[in-house]
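User: Reviewer 2 asked us to show a designed sequence for the structure in our supplementary figure. I'm pasting the structure tokens here. Could you produce the per-position amino acids so we can include them in the response letter?
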């Protein structure tokens, strides 16, 4: 059975759903490596499918080992750290600027 935890956070006015789960095949992974493989799904829910600095489509899937996730402080902290770091990129700044401008044509 899959273990899931879903949290909703806000980042700069965008609601983001973060779902962390232990996929059922992770039990086999744990038998081999000694820890679970975790799956994190990130998607924007309001506005729906809005881009984020870590995804242009509003959806991202991440696989990470349990020890790595714990060392990052959990999935919410990991995602917020990644979003905030990526928000400084020139690509995101340009996309963010364009999305705030009205297009008259």
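Assistant: Here is a per-position design you can include in the supplement:
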């Amino acid at each position: 059975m899959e273990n899931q935890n879903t949290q909703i956070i806000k980042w700069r006015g965008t609601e983001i759903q973060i779902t962390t789960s232990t996929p059922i095949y992770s039990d086999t992974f744990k038998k081999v490596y000694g820890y679970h493989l975790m799956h994190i799904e990130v998607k924007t829910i309001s506005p729906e499918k809005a881009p984020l600095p870590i995804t242009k489509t509003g959806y991202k899937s991440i696989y990470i080992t349990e020890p790595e996730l714990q060392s990052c402080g959990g999935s919410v902290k990991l995602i917020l750290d990644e979003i905030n770091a990526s928000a400084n990129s020139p690509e995101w700044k340009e996309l963010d600027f364009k999305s705030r401008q009205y297009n008259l044509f």
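For the response letter, you might also mention the following. The mean pLDDT is 91. Residues 3-100 form one domain.
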